[in-house]
Amino acid sequence: CAGDQLMRLKNPLTQDITVLRPTLLPSLLQAISHNLSRGVQDLRAFELGRVFAKRPGQPEEHLELGIILCGHRHPEQYGAERQVELDFADLRGLVEDLCERRRLPTPECRPASHPALQAGQAAELLVGGQILGVMGRLAEPLAREARLRLPLWLALINADALMALTAKPLQFAALPQFPAVTRDVAFLAKR
What value does the CA radius of gyration of the chain take, rounded to a whole number of Å? Predict the structure, then answer.
């Protein structure tokens, strides 16, 4: 957020907090640093909170959803599976699942640029043609400052706009006459 878009407090309680937060990114990075300093490398977290910006006419306030993924995809596994790192596809799948659970159309991603995201690894998130946010890999300077050893994947989504989208109506589907069998066992016995 540009300096002229920050909402400054007239009477701040401390000198550290003189503006209302324009994004959830600093608090998400603080959570990452807190966990890294305690030896936790594999992280998946989210934050839902209000963010503020000064716009022509009147200030803007909206609910923002921040999602972070860092580390290995399956840290509980053994062997080669344990070493597979989280990537953009994991973050995109999580956002698609969120939209599916809200009964919204599958979100589209198109290349974008954002100051907090790595160039060439950032995308705008669109649902129904409306831009809802950005997602991608944390920019290298910010990752170095946070002492990250593995890539951090981040999504910042306007939750108010997401919740305002019209969901598809629920449709009834009859239960199957014969339920699925997940495991079939056969026994051989002597007569």
Answer: 22
Which DSSP state fits 115? Answer: T
On whether the CB atoms of residues 160 and 63 are closer than 8 A, the answer is: yes
Residue 112 tokens read as 């974008």
Cβ-based neighbours of 72, under 8 Å, separated by 6 or more: 41, 42, 82, 83, 84, 85, 86, 150
3-state helix, strand, coil in the chain (%, to 5): 25, 30, 45
Euclidean distance between CA atoms 96 and 103, whole angstroms:
10
Which residue type does 103 have?
A: R
pLDDT 10s digits, 128-187: 889 999 999 999 999 888 888 889 999 999 999 999 998 888 888 888 888 887 777 788
Q: What is the 3-state secondary structure (H, E, C) of 140-177?
A: HHHHHHCCCCCCEEEEEEEHHHHHHCCCCCCCCCCCCC
Q: How far apart are CA 18 and CA 158, in angstroms?
A: 23
Residue 25: DSSP 8-state: H
**Which DSSP symbol is given to 166?**
P
